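Ticket #4471: structure output looks truncated?

Reporter: J.K.
Steps to reproduce: submitted the chain below (207 residues) through the standard prediction queue, then opened the result file.
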Amino acid sequence: MRLFALALFAAALAPAGEWTPLFNGKNLGGWKMAGPGRFVVEGGALKTEGGMGLLYYAGEKFGDCTIRVVFKTASEKANSGVFIRLAEPPTDAWYGVHNGYEVQIDAAGDEWHSTGALYSLAKVSARSQKPAGEWNTMDIVLGGQTTTIVLNGLKVNEFRGDQPVPPRKQWYEPVRGPRPDSGYIGLQNHDERSIVYFREVSVKKGR
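Returned output as attached by the reporter:
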């Protein structure tokens, strides 16, 4: 409880325009898990393990900010994602898919499901993920209803909440509809074969 309180206090004190780390490199202080999957800390990074799960930062909701995630995958087909604009604390592993946006991590996916896509809603304009085993930096910029994705310095996606999206075809694709300007953020553990590491999750407030 003390670690959790300290994490919330540090995030609240950070002024606009400065990076605030949400992951301390040592433990899961400030984070909570939903679903059967899990994250462990290994070598100063969060590592996905087990089945489907959603690890979310419980300290506050974020809007009009840049979320920076530094990650690497253990294989080309490793699947994960960063959840944004979650209106409420997740209650299960699928909450983020249907109630927020999933910024996809998957080098092997098509343009609607590859790294930097908003899963099945907004396709990428380019692919810039590094090979498995190399660290990637992904910046997710939230400005009102606009979401911009920059992967390794290259803008790969920009989406407005009111723009047209493809029809929903499968049960596991996100329910269509509006998402809030601000919300909780989270990381996905997709499946036991997909191993993804996150060594940094930071936020810089303001546009």
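Triage note (M.O.): checked the attachment and the full token line is present. DSSP finds two helices and 13 strands in the chain.
Status: closed, working as intended.
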